[in-house]
Amino acid sequence: MTASRPAGQHTVRRHNRALVLRTVAADEPVSRARIAAGTGLTRGTVSSLVAELLAAGLVAELAVARGATGRPASPLQLNRSGPGGLGVEIGVDAVGACVVDLTGAVRAQRVAASGHRTRPVADGLRAAAGLAAEVVGEAGLPVAGVGLAVPGVVADGVLERAPNLPSWRDVDVVARAAAVLAPVVGGAPVSVGNEADLAALAEHRAGAAGDDFLYVSGGVGVGAGIVLGGRLFGGSGGRAGELGHVVVDPTGPLCTCGGRGCLERAAGLEDLCRAAVVDDLDALADAATRHEPTAEAALRAGGHALGVALAGAVNLLDVPTVVLGGGYPRLGAVLRAAVVDELARRVVWRSPVAVRTSALGAVAALRGAATSVVRGVLDG
Ligand SMILES: [Zn+2]
């Protein structure tokens, strides 16, 4: 019985330390006195916890300023030189890496073309590790952890399936990434998430979409991240959001998942490019800007399919907002207008569903992966 008491005190102290750190993050620059007033902790407790946070390099003291009472007051802020988060993304045809500091500000970021569809897992990890080394070197911050974004179904740290990366099946991606990244980040912990989920978290952090929305990531595949009540909704095992494999045409073309007529085959970027008779996303975006008729017809058809799938999801989940992300924000107004049209027609509520385009675009997942590490640090 008595053994539980020190553990309890330790837990309380840790909780209070995280509370102080979050207060600094929310209100910086902030004095110890204001932290005490805001948290209800005593001045002495706040001073002691701040000393710990200073020693850990998580907060920094600004130059001493004279307080109103004449006593010196050193405002505190998050330490811009403190531990940062490394985000790494392995996509179907690209890799990315970025480092954010404790405030979430990007300190270094790189994205490079790198096709993984027919290459083994080790190649993708190696390509990602190369970029990670570059951004970590450029940022010059200690790395608190690594967030890895992948385009597939993730549960318990295992990438179970990525239909567009056939060799990535039941891969213990956390362990393998940790081994490959060890020369770059030492023993920093690695976590993994679905790219659309991490992008949705970045979108939530950006704030414009509110606390309840569905984020759609348009890439070779089409993924979704569901945010409800400000938290990511992953379903019973974290696998929710496979919007790309919702069927929009039961007699449609075969999909990489083995099904037929999936949304991905109607609104995935490769299929949109094929329908528009262009080579890649850049060419499709360019054709959309020029209002090229074949491209607009392809985007309209893709947008209607996307709207049909989204209307089903919105009717099911009761979310007031949809965010179009990934490559979709580059494709102009036609695709979005078709989505708006289908939602207006098919969602059974009276109030319209807001359709936003992500300001973060194609790097949203990378940002989400990096900032999830920092959130973990701030949450203690
Ligand atoms: Zn499918």
Query: Main sheet: which strands, in order across?
Result: 7-6-5-8-12
**Structural class assignment:** alpha/beta
The overall average pLDDT, rounded, is 93
SSE ordering: HHHEEEEEEEHEEEEHEHEEEHHHHEHEH
Based on the coordinates given, report the CATH architecture of the largest domain: 2-Layer Sandwich
Instruction: Count up the helices.
Output: 12
Reading off the top of the CATH hierarchy, the class of the largest domain is best stated as Alpha Beta
User: What share of residues are in beta strands?
Assistant: 15-25%
End-to-end Cα distance, whole Å, is 26 Å
Tally of DSSP β-strands: 17
Ligands present: zinc ion
Describe the structure.
By secondary structure, this protein is an alpha/beta fold. It has three domains: 4-78, Winged helix-like DNA-binding domain superfamily/Winged helix DNA-binding domain (Arc Repressor Mutant, subunit A); 84-197 and 365-378, ATPase, nucleotide binding domain (Nucleotidyltransferase, domain 5, 2-Layer Sandwich); 209-358, 2-Layer Sandwich (Nucleotidyltransferase, domain 5). It is 43% helix and 21% strand. The chain contains twelve helices and 17 strands. It has helices at residues 4-27, 32-39, 43-55, 121-139, 173-185, 195-206, 264-267, 269-276, 281-289, 293-317, 332-346, 364-378, and strands at residues 59-61, 65-66, 72-73, 76-78, 84-90, 94-100, 106-113, 143-150, 153-155, 158-161, 169-171, 190-194, 213-218, 222-228, 231-233, 321-326, 354-357. A five-stranded mixed beta sheet has the order 7-6-5-8-12. Helix 1 (4-27) crosses helix 3, helix 4 packs parallel to helix 5 (173-185) and helix 10 packs parallel to helix 11 (332-346). The longest helix is centred in the last third of the chain and has 25 residues, at 293-317. The radius of gyration is 23 Å and the shape is globular. The mean pLDDT is 93. The site of zinc ion has 6 residues, from loops.
